[in-house]
């Protein structure tokens, strides 16, 4: 059994993309917030002398994190899908009666060096709530990066 675990190569986090509704929207430089988590409900049972006798934990609700996506800033934001989506929400809002208006389902998809999909995190009802641009400096030759906060309702690793 231990030799079987050694024989499996680890996932290398170098090729990953954001997909929305099945198509690649942007290449990512980093992602954080891929936390699949449940709330923990704790109960205590007390004995006749009033002291805690037993502590039990139960699975509570699923928690949905915000995803933080870092990418290279596009040269023209008017032609960029993420900026278009963000600006659409900023100008029109999200209709309360239409849950599919600007909320979208998508995935963070990881690939190996041969471009084979090795992992997939699916999210539901996501929308960009913030886009932050890196600090700019005349002393830098680094590419400009953007951090996109994607607010989601659920996250699941399916592969």
From TrEMBL:
One Pfam family hit: Phage_T4_gp19
Q: Which PANTHER family match?
A: CONSERVED HYPOTHETICAL PHAGE TAIL PROTEIN (PTHR38009:SF1)
Q: What is this protein called?
A: Phage tail-like protein
Native species:
Cellulomonas humilata
């Amino acid at each position: 059994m231990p030799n079987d675990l050694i024989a499996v190569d680890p996932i290398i986090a170098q090729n990953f993309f954001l997909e929305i509704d099945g198509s690649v929207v942007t290449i990512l430089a980093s992602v954080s917030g891929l936390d699949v988590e449940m709330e923990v409900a704790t109960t205590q049972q007390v004995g006749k002398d009033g002291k805690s006798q037993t502590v039990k934990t139960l699975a509570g609700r699923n928690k949905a994190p915000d995803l933080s996506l870092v990418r290279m800033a596009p040269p023209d934001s008017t032609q960029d899908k993420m900026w278009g989506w963000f600006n659409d929400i900023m100008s029109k809002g999200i209709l309360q009666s239409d849950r599919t208006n600007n909320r979208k389902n998508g995935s963070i998809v990881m690939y190996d060096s041969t471009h084979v999909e090795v992992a997939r995190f699916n999210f539901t009802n996501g929308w960009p709530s913030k886009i932050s641009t890196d600090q700019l400096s005349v002393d830098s030759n680094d590419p400009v990066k953007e951090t996109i906060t994607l607010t989601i309702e659920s996250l699941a690793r399916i592969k």
